[in-house]
Amino acid sequence: MDVSVLGVDLGKNSCSVVGLDATGKVVVRRRMRRETVIAYAGTLPPCVVAMEACCGAHHMGRALERQGHTIRLMSPEYVRPYVKAQKNDDRDAEAIAEAATRPTMRFVELKSEEQLDMQTLHRIRDQLVGERTSLMNQIRSLLLERGHIVPQGRAKLAVRLAELLDADEPVLGCRIHRLVSDMRQRWTALDERIGDLDAEFTQAAQEDERTRRLLTIPGIGALNATALVAAVGDARTFGRGRDLAAWLGLVPRQATTGGKPRLLGISKRGSRYLRKILIQGARSSLPTMSKSDTRLGAWLRGLLARSHANTVVVALAAKMARIVWALLRHERTFNPVAQAA
Description:
Blueprint: E1 5-9, E2 14-20, E3 26-33, H1 34-42, E4 48-52, H2 57-65, E5 70-74, H3 76-79, H4 89-100, H5 113-145, H6 154-165, H7 174-207, H8 209-214, H9 222-232, H10 241-247, E6 252-254, E7 263-266, H11 272-289, H12 295-306, H13 309-330
Parallel strand pairs: 1-4, 4-5
Antiparallel strand pairs: 1-2, 2-3, 6-7
Helix pairs in contact: 5-7, 5-9, 7-9, 9-11, 10-13, 11-13
């Protein structure tokens, strides 16, 4: 039995496995548990093992790669067109194996355990920030119901809480006073946990050569740099900078028909988190960069003269994504080019 491509449809407990020979004929069709898949692949000669890029795929991919197999991970969106007739696990595994043989298929880079750990830390921090924002809004609504209007901003809310809770004379009712005090303690605990993660990101950014190169880009801090390196690695998966910007959803959507090109808003594909922090970094650096005597500054001033500021921010985020690709791919640091006289 000569297996050239092994397609694996991963499940929580059981997996469907389909093997194709060199001609594309199905020669293996089995169902087995996750640990059995690794043991079974160990009995095969080196071949291509294809999976969808989903939960657990990178861990299994690293285990199979150590056995000498070539790992190909694909987005489920690109596998879906190869599913024939009714959908089931066996058909999915066959579609995965067939999609892996396509010369134009786009594959996902196998991530290391360190990259996955860093992505997990970013997800936890984003969740904590969301919990803190929700808690602050809840505190504002409780105070508003009792006639205390608090301006926007974390600092102003903290000052107002200090005035209401630490005053000599009680301002709020006894029960509400205890409730809001407990909510403030939860807020403080969330701030401490977020601060600890930020410190960990800062230390990790200083220890990695790739993140240190990204830190030379205006608008890129330790949070952006560690998240980008964890997601794209050395960026060799992307052939050019625009491909990375498109992967992040920062390029226009196309609705071309009849040979008439029509560009719409940005596609918003890919990671919403990466796109968000890039746009936030672009917004913070725009005032300084637009005043700089560089070619990038001249380009930004031209955009500001004819476009809305929010449009310029997104355009700058897309430009930053291209710069990130160039620095990671060619192992350089950012050096702004002065504007020609």
